[in-house]
Amino acid sequence: MQSLHKSKSVRHLGVGRFLIIAATLATSLTACNRKEGIISFGGKAQGTYYTVSYFDSQQRNLQPTVDSLLAAFDQSASLWVDSSLIRRINAGLTDSLDPILYNLLWHSTEVFHYTDGAFNCLVGRIVQEWGFSFRQRQEPDSARLQRLLQAAHAPTYIGNNHVVRTDPLTELDFNAIAQGYSVDILAAAFDSLGIESYLIDVGGEVIAHGAKPNGQSWRVGIERPSADSISAPQVMTAIELRDASVVTSGSYRKYYERDGVRYSHTIDPRTGRPVQHSLLSVSVVEKECWFADAMATAYMVMGLEKSLEFIQAHQGQPGTDAVMFIYDDHGTLKTYETQGFKKLTI
Ligand code: AMP
Ligand code: MG
Fold first, then answer.
1. Which of 17, 66, 79, 264 supports an S-S bond with 274, CB 3.0-4.6 Å?
2. Which atom from ligand 1 is nearest to the alpha carbon of 205?
């Protein structure tokens, strides 16, 4: 069922987008650091960390700019901030969209249709019910799940600056795209300031622009899926990234375990249940970080086999050129890389 609609009055604005994912090879520092011309700093946003590294002939400290953009982003799209606009919309207190939520909803609608519903930002209430955000972790009974599935597929419309929900149980959840989109917002700010070489990482969603002064591309490590959620990250493979983003979505850090069963934080919108398959992580390289983020989640929903069918059927189309899958083959870690991804590996 196609549940997300764009009203005729909608214009495409388009900017320019938990702890899993790509461990950057850049230095991550909490205080602003200047060494050999590189400026690096980091902090917290969206319930996770961020790190930024860049070269600037004017040696500007961009931390206040980054912090205020990320704080504004959290006030809009973060489900972890009680007073955020998304929380108020979900609580039925307002239907107004600010430009950030408008773009997130628009982009999510595009990916919803592109992936035939595998990506669905209306699964918010289902995610909560399984207990990945605020509530007790408990399995919803099947009548409740059916009701919430209905809500996740209820007609929902985007107006110029507002959202129309036809079911009060339909709740927005942009966690699968928001970090990536925040990276794009930071990248747009760096571009407008004339920074020609930078690496931005928000919780593992990474964008790299330009080359370092010595001509080398930025390098980003893709994390080896770990056996549990607390092990120190290890790099599985590394890629060179220039004017592109890489996002990894995985089931190995964000999950919970009950009675020996692991429940992923990724929901299959067709069943309302956490996905359960051999796929451990998917890394997608794309120009815009929001799109890489959304596609990585969509592939996690599809699983390896369906993802490969999707890539085959959409050759030459967005989100299919450079993708790496890491999966569990009877206890052995295996990878599948598209040709486009192989070309980037170091
Ligand atoms: P990511 O880590 O980018 O794959 O995003 C996972 C998060 O997105 C989850 O914690 C949920 O909040 C949300 N989510 C879960 N399943 C879906 C889905 N099928 N489509 C869109 N968002 C989802
Ligand atoms: Mg994602």
1. 264
2. 3
